[in-house]
Amino acid sequence: MQDNTPHFREKFPHYIGINKSEEKEMCQFLGLENSRQLFEHLPSNILFKTFTDLPAGKSNHEIQIAMEKLADKNKMVLSLLGAGVTQLKPSNIIGDICGIRGLTTAYTPYQPEKSQGTLISLWIYQSILSALTGMEAVNASMYDRSTAIFEAIKTASRLNKKYTALVCENIDPRDKEVITSLAKYTNTNVIFVPFLEKTSLTDLTKLNQIISEKSDEISCVVFPQVNYFGNLEQVDQLTNLCEENKIKSIAVIDPLFLANDGLKKPANFGNNGVDFITGEVQHFAIDNNFGGPGLGLFGCRYNNKDKMSIRQTPGRYVGKGSDRFDQEAFLMVLSTREQHIRREKATSNICSNQSFLATLAGACYLTLGSSGHDKVFNKIQKITSNWTNLFLSYSEFSLTFESNTALNTITLNFKSKSYSIEEFIKLALDQGIELGEKNDQSLIFSFSDKLVDSDLNKLETFLSKHCKKSESYSPLSFTLAKSDKRIEAAQIETFSEKETIDYYKNLGELNISPDDGIYPLGSCTMKYNPYINDWAAGLPGFTTSHPVSDESIVQGNLEVLFEIQEWFKKITGLPGVATQIVAGAHGELAGLKMFQAYFAHKGELEQRKFMIIPRSAHGTNPATATVAGFTDKKTGASQILWLDSLPSGEINLAQVTEYIAQYGNQIAGVMVTNPNTAGIFETKFKDMADQIHEIGGLVYMDGANMNAIAGIVNLNDLGVDAVHNNLHKTWSIPHGGGGPGDGIVAVSEKLIDFIPGFLVKSKNNEKGEPIFYKEKPKHSIGMLHRHHGNFAHKVRALTYLYALGSDGISRMSEIAVLSSRYLVKRLSSEPMLPQEANVTPRMHEFILTLSETNFTNISKTAGIPKASIIGLIGKLFLDYGLHAPTVSFPEQFGLMIEPTESFTKDELDRFSDVVLELLNFAVENPQVLTTVPHFSPMAKIDELKANRNLVVSQESLSELPSLPQDRVSYNDIRNLTPNEISGLILKHHLQANNSSVSNGSQNPSEGSLRV
Questions:
Q1: Distance between CA atoms of 434 and 554, rounded to whole angstroms?
Q2: Band (261; pLDDT cuts 50, 70, 90)
Q3: Quick one: pLDDT at residue 4?
Q4: DSSP conformation letters of 664-707
Q5: pLDDT at 1
Q6: Residue range 498-522, pLDDT digits in tens
Q7: Reduced to 3 states, what is the DSSP secondary structure of residue 577?
Q8: Sign of the CA dihedral 878, 879, 885, 886?
Q9: Considering just the CA atoms, what is the radius of gyration of the chain in Å?
Q10: Model pTM?
Q11: Alpha carbon 433 to chain centroid, angstroms
């Protein structure tokens, strides 16, 4: 039975763990009169004079009323829309799986020993999609189908060093726009291949002609299995054509159609299968949700014929490995391709993956299994056939293209003497029926298993009133040709709903959640995630709404986006806000693409070559600059000017001045995180911005650390032209084991006209009531997401903003900084980094390290290389019942700690006591680091071995992976004193050592042991 007891953090005002008396006590400890003095070292000319131009915080009851009112403004209609979002009846288990906090609130599984819950759930997802598609390697990292397609194009270019992609014109038009937007200003050239008007299928003659003319330039061909109009593409011919011409084949697929009774899997296209697959899996996990969060599908071959392509792909893969006791374990593999390691040479700038949506999709599929999938596929086919025949029985409708297949989408001509197509759509909408998407004089209808007999009756009643029955019509029979059908059956067992829910609840126990206590992962802002946010996002008015619905029936959604825009204008001080952003790195890319469009509009694009970025920046910053196109167009070399830090930890402003003197107006701008990754506010930021603006450049501020300055610093006064806010950090969206993330980008006046997607605006109707509508900015860079971004997360963020209000936003920042500064002083006996920045005030986070003497002693006594010590101390945190801090970033020998504002003074005190005990224990008993962690489900996992012997899926899922258990209960650990935990660690270390000896393993030196 589910525990419905409210979490004790729900009772804190604004979800802030420190009360007023504790705040006063902590300030006194720091020698301050109040928490606002924490910001005295910031220049006064960049601070908000007042921050009250927002509503006050609401109570839970008031929030419920407000969010229900917004959801109710959306009208529930009979929808026959597709438009790139496959509608599917949601699984009964969604609510239960979404309620597992160990899965929803945990971070990316960088510490695999205590993240097996997320890792196993992703392994299940990967294996299911691999079984359905035949592609041996599938990741869970793309924002949506559109971004997945572009990433596949880029992968093909890396593999064959060619930069022209041929994309079939008959894919979804929103995908085409995203691809075009992302390719602009880069070395990627996209040519769209036309389709035949009679059939909607790709014009193979034209395709062959282009390949013949540009054979030395073409990297890949992108084609759909089922095209935008609902017809089956010539996948065998297209795949073979690619193979014959030694170019990469990229198939856009929908896994819904890959049931055993369904379509051929991509691995069987042509003679040898496609090279890459892309697609969308959102519908396997959640309802429409106004188009997001999406779950982009990306897969490639990984077999005896091709073991290297995977190493050029983007995103994250879960692999199978083992721990030091040879117990089967799961972990993320191939991370050497990623931003935190390769930086400007990374394969992609995408950082957050789509873990929780992939987790949910995997769980929902388990309750279907292969047999249930067949039932859904056949049901949708039957509904599509019946409804299509109903339309065709009226003389106003006819097939647009020659076709004998109807999977879930059909395109029909509409011709009436009484109504234009626009009038007919409006007439139906007035009757609660949203007809298909208009395409010239055709309507593209999409059908789903949500539809029931009463819906069919409703449509028939409408058609009978406004259309004329055909006198010559005879029903069409829609069948799949043998050559289109699946050959090999997938073998995925069906599990009961209870079985699946129980299994995933157990998975949740294998992770660590911020619900449990301080989650000190620096620069990730692991704060508490309120339950009411998820409740609001789950309101049916939001979840069932379709992203291309008429604006009149999604007024609630548009108002949510409008509100987000208005709140973040006030929070940042900047006049424009883009809401299509789905992650921090996505926001960075949006910002730099806007920079490029701004310079192109001014005729300066070619001269603006360089981007200045600090060496301490998160890896997505340089990766984003490369992806955006800040590279030498001939050599592909990065055009980043690296910025060093001063001993104080701040950027070297003199170096900026030197770069300006050397490169002048060749500089496009800067990307600077503020506060920076050492937790230090860049007090010279405004001076830097002024210098950049003087040469006509632009300023990008990485807003990952807004939790320190929201409501305090006016970014417009600071000189910022674009800034992203991670809604999954500062604004309380759960991290979901690595995503979906979410974001906004706020911009200065210069960039408003270049905002991606659209702006939501408001006007009053004749009754004086606000009406919300979308408007594309004058020089928009185009779509960066196939629809509205991760809309469900915008609902969560707005719910949180309602709870905070103007007073809660600034207090959130104050207490986050106060908590950090309090820990800094309590831990002041330990050295911190940067080494010469001891007098520099820290903001929301700080970097702890060891003295050189202690590094030397540990290395000498335990035989551990210095470079490995910090990582092992991170594992030791797991033994004390905590998630590890961020290890070895941005300082190689540092532990970056961020407490956030969510936790109580008692929790802060215990945390500092634990850290002091932990560090002291590691120094006095360094040999324990050779066997950490001791209590988590897995002992230390052999990452090197797993990467060398790569296993990223299993062929069938007849049973689920067996689950390990905590070797010592984490609840028990948290009830021990720090010293008692140390004693328990020592006991387990000796047992582990004895086990290693009995197994013939190397026995590290015991040294002196402190009990």
A1: 12
A2: very high
A3: 58
A4: GGGEEEEEEESS-TTS---TTHHHHHHHHHHTT-EEEEE-TTGG
A5: 32
A6: 999 999 999 999 999 999 999 999 9
A7: strand
A8: negative
A9: 28
A10: 0.96
A11: 33
